[in-house]
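We emphasize that the prediction below concerns an isolated chain of 283 residues; any contacts that depend on oligomerization or on bound cofactors are therefore not represented. The input was used exactly as deposited, without trimming of termini.
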Amino acid sequence: MTGTLYVVGTPIGNLEDLTARAGRVLSEVGVVAAEDTRRTGLLLKRLGATARLISMFEGNEPDRVPLVLGILRGGQDVAVVSDAGMPSVSDPGYRLVAACVEGGVPVDVVPGPSAAIAALVVSGLPTDRFAFEGFLPRSGSARRTRLAQLSEEPRTIILFESPRRLEKTLGDLAEALGERRVAVARELTKLHQEVLRGALTDVQAGIRGRELKGEIAVVVEGRRRPARADPDQAARLARGFLAAGVSKREAARRAASGTGVPSRDVYERLIRPPTESPDEGDP
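Result of the prediction step, given as a token string:
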């Protein structure tokens, strides 16, 4: 009988966040595929679990997939865990899950903490729609392209970043996206948890010169919708420019620039004959 692969969420900091079900599964499976066997070994020791540990991290996951599939097909249950949070979310696990699904091996999930979701809900930014981007490309055209794409993203954006690259990333975001609200969540659920909120450039200035440590999630406000253009307001503004002595076309251009209404629409309103109201004595 084929074993089951359990995708198990583990604490992102505070060990009290380990769910009862996660603790039970980790204690019952025969094998745990772990991103860091030393860290997971401490967790298993705390649980009194005796599962065999095998390493599975980003660099060796493609080679580990056949090994784990063989263990599962041999009838043993396997749990896959990352250093913290949910496996396969910017962590190893996706290739293994995909291979199990393709090969007809049962896959179950044991939900647990997620740094991305925790940062989102504590950010104070809109949570109804969001986009998870993981780590940005470090440099070059790939980074510039991704930032340009994010500049048009209307949903709240969640990123991961390292402490040493955080200041530069905040600056790059401000340059590409414009001044937006941001929340930088560091060491969530741990003793030195910190959440910095404000405008991108303000938060960047606030961390300048600091030696930050720990895991960091960055939550950025999505692109705001422009205010709805009001053609009547634009026409009134254009007539004000006309009264100052500029031409109709120049007045339309200036009004369009200030309101977002197309200059052609403003100009047509300027040359349109005024609507005549009937005299009170007319039948």
